[in-house]
Each structure stands twice: as structure tokens, then as C-alpha cells.
Amino acid sequence: MTTPAPSTPTATEQLTMLRLMARIRHFEQKLAELFKRGELPGFVHLYLGEEAVAVGACTALRDGDKITSTHRGHGHLIAKGATVNRMMAELFGRADGYCRGKGGSMHIVSFDLGIMGTNGIVGGGIPIGTGAAWGDKYLGRDSVTVVFFGDGASNQGVFFESMNLAAIWKLPVIFVCENNGYSEWTPTERLTAGKIHERGMPMGIPGALVDGNDVEAVFGAVSQAAQRARAGEGPSLIEAVTYRWHGHNEGEEVFAGEYRPQEEQDHWRSREPVAPYARTLIDRGVLTADEWETLDREESDAVDGAVEFARASPFPDADEALMHVFTEV
Amino acid sequence: MAVIAETKTVTETKQRQTYFVKAMQEAIAAAMREDPNVVVLGEDVERSVIGATRGLLDEFGPERLRNTPISEQAFVGAAIGAAAAGMRPVVDMMIGAFFYVSMDQLASQAAKLPYMSGGQIHLPITYFTATGPSGGGAAQHSENLHPMLMNVAGLKIVMPSTPYDAKGLMYSAIKDPNPVVYLQDHVLGGTKGPVPREIYSIPIGVADVKRPGADVTVVAIGATVPKALNSAAELEDDGISVEVVDPRTIVPLDIDTILESVERTGRLVVVDNARITGSAASEIAASVCERGFDLLKTAPVRVAWPDTPVPFSAPLERRVVVQQEDITSAVRTVVRR
Q1: Chain B neighbours among A 21-80 (CB < 8 Å)?
Q2: Which strands, in side-by-side order, build the sheet including B88-95?
Q3: Which range marks the domain in which residue B30 is found?
Q4: What is the pLDDT of residues A109-158, one digit of tens each?
Q5: Can you give A161-224 as a three-state secondary structure string?
Q6: How many DSSP H helices and E strands does chain B contain?
Q7: What is the structure's pLDDT at A2?
Q8: Is B106 an 8 Å CB contact of chain A?
Q9: pLDDT tens digits along A200-256
Q10: What confidence tens digit (pLDDT) does each residue in A51-90 have?
Q11: Contact across the interface for A126 and B77, Cβ inside 8 Å
Q12: What is the ipTM of this complex?
């Protein structure tokens, strides 16, 4: 038996990735259901169909590495180790949520896990993650930061500014663009010149184009970028091509109408990332069909449990609204 | 633990005189010597156009004095990530209006992340800049952002008016665990005053009575403080005794010191170096009316800019920006009533 190259996941990592993808899938499906029933307040942007990007990227990271996330961030958080109980509680605005109900879907932070936050502003996390990488480098840590952002955010000026800063300072940052085809409600190809993964090339930032529905391809690309970053060689850009099964946000049908061709949706559903990966692992003998069924049910049950946990969690005291504006001196 | 000195005891003794920006620079240097994680970044901080970081390169080197690209969003945001990671960034925004370029990172990210995270993240960042009219700066180099930023929630805002306060408040800003916006009024940068050589801090959120008086309280902010003091001296000849209160900090605002002064004088003029609508002067006047209506003998008067951009040509700029005679005239008005 040969030692796997760093860009190939071990059997344990493969199982972890399958489990995390199943967890995200069930979590997001549950949210869609809860939203329809009117049980979820606020804006909800689902990650269904994109599970392989977050899971492949975060499994390639170590403890102590950081991520910044987006408005479509539940998958990133689960992949980086956030518990479904505390995430669900946050989405319900309850005291047991990661931010005690102050953040909600678009602002979940778990600093201890290296999760610097989902973000309600498109592109808002890009310079923050770049700065975190600078901080870690300055403080002599051997860690990297993955900056997740979407194809829409690739047209924000701050993306270019941050790549430039990361390049001149050789920062250990990995820019992971999840190209899910739509910038809000408009096809990204109508809004975007050239290829996103080539946008760092004039700055000397290597760009990789990967199948975002292939969790091992994402894992491999991020592993290589992380290796490069830890070796002091600077930033990388990875464009992971995937597809958003749901709309920009839940409930959009009241105004958005149909804007994605049915054939396109069918095509991407047929290329979905989770079940085919389970079949691959079964074929490889990493787990049996029964074990996959059990794993999938465990994750589904865990999400049901998270809903119960969230419903049972108390609302925070209303006066907590006035806390944490400032850190006490 | 730094020494907290009182302005009055210092001005009474013979002190070394130095420039406002030099006082800022001394505080930055002291904080950098004490803590290797204090790092300055911004456009041309090595040379330092305004002067607050000039000369620091030799001592601290380019790792700790980092010239950034002209990318305000990127470096205002990078300071957030770096602070969360454990650094204590000091960001030079050079000119106040450049904050507008970075507004998402300042207002939606730096100001809000600690709150949105339920207190998990602390962001010890100092954002300093030269602001306000400077004589021909025109509309894009004369802005004062404190009225806008005081409504953001999550940003402390300091605005010193003397070299002494400039040093102590800069030191406090860098030591503070929160994002602090430090506004150095352009025209004060070259003013001189007594500044001890040793380091000291002035607590954020504490106002200073710059001149005691009995008939009228004049609350003045930033560059309007010396104008208010000159006005007070002028009015003394006419037998009008003016108390000048300098809040020094806009957020949090020391309204108690202002109310105590109004309790003594019964009259209030609030002077701001900004457009009048939604100004800090408006907020102060409203707070005094709300909490101290019975202390007032007459309605307060605000002295601030008309709601126009700051024009270029000297007589036009003069027409907009608060002048000493505007303050004098406002004081006479409230005394006559």
C-alpha cells in the first residue's frame, strides 16, 4: 500500500466527506421545508447542489486554518465543523445559536472553529480573509485561510484589490470561487468577462478550474493550494464550477418567476455530488451499501434533532440586543 | 499601566512644545514599542503625507510599517481579519473622504462583526485620518465623517483638538479592544502645544472643560475648539463669561460633563465642524434638551456648516466653514435672549 499523495483523500477523509455532504444536504432540505412552513425568519440562501465545494475544500484544511464565507454559507460552516444544533438554533434566533441569535443565517460566526463568518455583503469577506492570512503569517502560524465567494462576487472590485494585496505580500490565502452559474437572478456569463479562474494570472496567482461537483477534485485542488500557501509561495485561485439547485433565496418565486431552463436544472440534478460519491465509495470498498444507508439516516435524524433542539432553545433575553456593540475595556 | 494625566495640570507646568501630528506619532511609536503586534498600514505610511507615521520606518521596518496599494476596501478589510487573528492594526486612511471608498468594510464589517458574532470577535483596530477643511481642499478632501459614522453603531470616534489630547487619545485608541476612528482635523496637524515626552493615555469617552465660564456653555468639536477659545477670549472683554467644553470623543459621548456645564451656565451653543443636518451638534443639542430642558434658560443654538459640499475658492470655503465670528455671534444671541 502506498502513501497517498497529499492531494488524494485517505479512506477516512473520503468517509468524512461523504458524511459532511449528506449532513449539508439534509440540513438544507430541512431549511427549505421550514421556510415553506413559515418557520424560518429572514433571508435564507440554500447550498443544495454545491455541497462538494465546501466539503472538498474544508476537508483539505487543518485545525487552526480559517475560512470566510458568504450569504450562502451553511455548507461551509458544517464542513468546517459547526454543529447542526447550534446552527439551527441560530437560524431560529435562539439563545443556543452560535451568535445567540444576533447573526442569523448570513452572519454565523464560530471563531473557535476558524469560521470568521458568513457574510451578508457579496464579496464582503474577501479582504477579511486576506487580512486573517496576513495576521497568521505575521504571527508566525503555519495556517492558511480559504476565502469562499461566488461568481457574483468575482465582479466586485474588492476581489481584485484583495488578490493584488495577497500576491504582493505572498499571503497564505486560497480564493475559492463557487461558480454556481447565477449572480442573484442573472446568468453569470452575461455579466462576467473572461474566465474567473484566470483573473489572478496577471498578478502571478495560479488559477485552477475544477469540477465543483467532484468532491475529490476540489479536495485535491485546495490541498495543493494549501501546500503552496504553507510553503510561503502565496495565494491561489480556484474556480469550482457547480450549480445552485434552488433560487437565489427561498421564497423568490413570488417575484422572480422562471429564469433557469428546465433542461439546465435537470442536467445538473443528474450530476448531483452526494449519491454518486456514495456509490463510488461503495465500489471502492470504503463502505457498504448498508453502511451508507445508515450514515445517511443518521445525518437525517441529526438534522431532525437539530430542529427539536432549536425549537426547545429559549429566545435570548430582549436586552441582549444592547450587548456586544462594544467590547468592554 | 499608563499614566492618566489631566490637561490642566500639564498646561500649567512648563512643558515641551510639539506639533499635533508629532504627538500622534509619539503615541503610535510608544504602542509599537510595547506590543510587536501593533502594525501600521495604509497608503505611503513610510513617508506619511500628513506626518503621523513619518520617521517610524527606521525603527520598525517595512514589516510593521506597511505601504499598501491604493485599495481602501482591501486594507480596511484586511485590518479586520488581521485584528481577529490577533494583531492590533493601526490604519492610516490619509484623507477622511477616502473612508467612503471603504464604507462596506468600515460600516458593515468592522463595526458590525463583533456584534453579529455575539461578542466572539474583538477588533482592536485604529483607523486614523486627516479630515475637515484645510484651505482649498475642496469637496472631496474636506469631509468630516463623524456625524455619519456616529450613526453606524460599533465604531468609537475620537476627535482631539490639542496636541496633548492627540497623543493620549491615540494611545488609548490603539489599546482599545474596539474599532476606533481617530479623526485629526487637517488644520490642527501643524498646531503646537505642550506634550509630555512620556507616554500617557486619555480615556475615550471623557470630555474636557477647556475653559471655565459662567454665562454660556460652548461645546466645540475638533478644529472649532481653538476658534471657540478665541471667541471666549473676545467675549470676555464684553463681560460675557464662556465655558468651552471639548467632548474629545464623539462616540461614546460624555453627555454628563456637558449637562453639568449647562447646569452652571443655563445656555448652550454647540459648534461642529460638519454640515448641520444630522451633525454631532444636532445630537448634543437634542440630548441636552431631552435630559436637561429645565437647566436651559433659552433654546440652544447650533453653529455648523450649511448643507453644501465644501467649495474650493477661499471666500467660498470661508462662507461654508464655521468662523470665530459665527461662534461669537451665536453666543451673543443666546445671552441676549
Answers
A1: 66, 68
A2: B65-67, B38-42, B88-95, B126-131, B180-185, B156-158, B249-251
A3: 8-194
A4: 999 999 999 999 999 999 999 999 999 999 999 999 999 999 999 999 99
A5: HHHHHHHHCCCCEEEEEEECCEECCEEHHHCCCCCHHHCCHHHCCCEEEEECCCHHHHHHHHHH
A6: 13, 14
A7: 41
A8: no
A9: 999 999 999 999 999 999 999 999 999 999 999 999 999 999 999 999 999 998 899
A10: 999 999 999 999 999 999 999 999 999 999 999 999 999 9
A11: yes
A12: 0.94
Q: Which residues of B touch A127 (CB under 8 A)?
A: 73-78, 80-81, 105
For testing contact with chain A, the best of B115, B155, B158 (most A CBs within 10 A)? B115
- Residue B136 is placed in which grid cell? 482649498
Same domain, B255 and B298: yes
Q: Write down the pTM of the prediction.
A: 0.95
Quick one: B170 and B249 in the same domain? no
User: Which one of 3.30.565.10, 1.10.540.10, 3.40.50.300, 3.40.50.970 gives the CATH number of domain A11-251+270-307?
Assistant: 3.40.50.970
CA B258, B259, B262, B266 dihedral sign is: positive
Angle at B323 between CA B319 and CA B325, to 5 degrees: 110
Q: What is the pLDDT of residues B41-60, one digit of tens each?
A: 999 999 999 999 999 999 99
> Which A residues 157-196 touch B at CB under 8 Å?
157-158, 161-162, 164-165, 168-169
Provide CB contacts within 8 A for A264, sequence distance 6+: A181, A243
Give the CATH number, domain containing residue B107: 3.40.50.970
- Same domain assignment for residues B109 and B238: no
- Residue pair A248/A180 in contact (Cβ under 8 Å)? The answer is no
| The pLDDT of residue A1 | 37
With respect to residue B173, please indicate whether it lies within any of the assigned structural domains. yes
Domain count, chain B: 2
pLDDT of the residue at B2: 41
Last residue of a domain, one of B146, B161, B194: B194
- B216 and B146 in one domain? no
Least CB-CB distance to B115: which of A168, A325, A328? A325
CA distance B100 to B86: 26
In angstroms, the CA A164 to CA A162 distance is: 5
C-beta of residue B249 within 8 angstroms of C-beta of residue B307: no
The residue from B194, B218, B238 where one domain ends is B194
Q: How deeply is A300 buried, as exposed, middle or buried, from its count of CB atoms within 10 A (0-12, 13-18, 19+)?
A: middle
